[in-house]
Specification:
Distance between the termini: 48 Å
Strand order of the largest sheet: 3-9-8-7-6-4-5
Helix content: 40-55%
Largest sheet: 7 strands, mixed
Number of domains: 2
Structural class: alpha/beta
CATH architecture of the largest domain: 3-Layer(aba) Sandwich
Low-confidence stretches: none
Radius of gyration: 21 Å
Strand content: 15-25%
């Protein structure tokens, strides 16, 4: 069998297993409604564009100005000649926004996570990870384990008793650095990490807390500063990693924020930072404008919270079973993978784009359609989507 034939066979198996991912092409900017593959305006309920800033005029204009001022790219890594003034301005704004002393940008949060664990930990250290953490954290830990021979442990999802047991064992083994790594908001469930409890345990066992706030930055808290602000703990989290590719303009990029020496330490040692071109200036400028937009307009965060609450409550009233929560990630549990995929197809026929997820992306029997609400959605957008859910739910015998 040739290489290409083997790939074809494996793709065929993906289709049989129901895990084949079809690409959906947009023909207009990411927004509450978008043109998709010849269809008219489709209500988008599967985007990370939580604040509607992907197409905000001031965010787009900032990127255009940076393109004229700095050019298309950096042509260099940061420590040679790839650091532009806009990078430093963005990093200062991000640190201030998430309540830390310093921050360092990467080309993605995936790179930020990879660059954190393998840089900070060695053979005498341990990283303790939530069971449902994002794939980028999982792979960052796997990579660090191979490169640095650090110790690893996983605690049951949001189970503080299990986390304490792992910390107790690490303390008994005389681990030098104990790093607890968790998502701030878990992307498939939409639930929030128990940060107050995690930080209490960290202080008890002299551990460091790292939070990937990718689905919380711009989303949680009164002014969108993330999971720490949500719990009234701004400034109390040791390390925050997050993305610029979701609420903060939606282009690309990520960052790591923490105490004053952290950014410089990562600049010196973090391999994804040392050996990758710097973030394109136009992306950095758009992200900076997005941060400034949120700081000037906290009402956009309030609107996001109101939209998420309205949509969740109306789904419940219709008879669906969305997972309880406070975030704009609203999974509707259907059980069977085929049912989730079929529902997403029928909703698209009704002019609503929402993604169905099944095993092995989620546990067997917990297939779902995952709705993601934006501040850009109007009440008309949400009501149109709800009416489509009602019609499709009736057609599938769900209501």
């Amino acid at each position: 069998m040739t290489f290409a034939a083997r790939l074809d066979a494996e793709l065929a198996q993906f289709r049989r297993d129901g895990v084949y991912k079809r690409l959906n092409y947009l023909e207009s900017p990411q927004a509450a409604r978008a043109k998709m593959e010849g269809r008219g305006d489709v209500v988008i309920l599967s985007s990370n564009n939580y604040l509607g800033l992907c197409n905000a005029p001031d965010v787009v204009a900032a990127g255009k100005r940076a393109l004229d001022q700095f050019g298309a790219g950096t042509g260099s890594v940061r420590f040679i000649c790839g650091t532009f003034t806009v990078h430093r301005e963005l990093e200062a704004a991000l640190a201030r926004f998430v309540g830390c002393e310093s921050s360092l940008t990467y080309v993605s949060c995936w790179n930020a996570n990879e660059g954190l664990v393998a840089t900070l930990l060695g053979e005498q250290d341990i990283v303790i990870s939530d069971q449902l953490n994002h794939a980028s954290i999982i792979d960052a830990i796997r990579l660090a384990k191979v490169i640095t021979k650090c110790q690893t442990a996983v605690y049951r999802h949001s189970d503080m008793a299990d986390l304490e047991e792992k910390l107790r064992s690490a303390q008994a083994a005389n681990a030098r650095l104990k790093l607890i790594f968790t998502d701030g908001v878990f992307s498939m469930e939409g639930d929030i990490a128990k940060l107050p409890d995690i930080v209490t345990l960290a202080r008890k066992y002299d551990a460091v807390v790292a939070v990937d706030d990718s689905h919380a930055t711009g989303v949680l808290g009164r002014s969108g500063r993330g999971s720490a602000e949500h719990f009234g703990m701004l400034g109390d989290i040791d390390i925050i990693t997050s993305t610029l590719g979701k609420a903060l303009g939606g282009a690309a990029g990520g960052f790591t924020a923490g105490p004053a020496p952290l950014a410089d330490y990562l600049t010196q040692r973090s391999r994804p930072q040392l050996f990758s071109n710097a973030l394109p200036p136009t992306v950095a400028a758009s992200a900076l404008a997005a941060v400034q937009h949120v700081e000037r307009h906290p009402e956009v965060v309030t609107r996001l919270h109101e939209n998420a609450r309205y949509f969740r409550e109306r789904l419940l009233a219709l008879g669906f079973k969305p997972l309880p929560g406070e975030t704009p990630i609203i999974p509707v549990i259907l059980g069977e993978t085929a049912k989730a995929i079929r529902m997403s197809e029928l909703l698209l026929d009704e002019g609503v784009f929402v993604t169905g997820f099944g095993y092995p992306v989620v546990p067997q029997g917990h297939a779902r359609v995952r709705c993601q609400v934006s501040a850009a959605h109007t009440r008309d957008d949400l009501d149109l989507a709800l009416a489509a859910f009602k019609r499709v739910g009736a057609k599938l015998g769900l209501l």
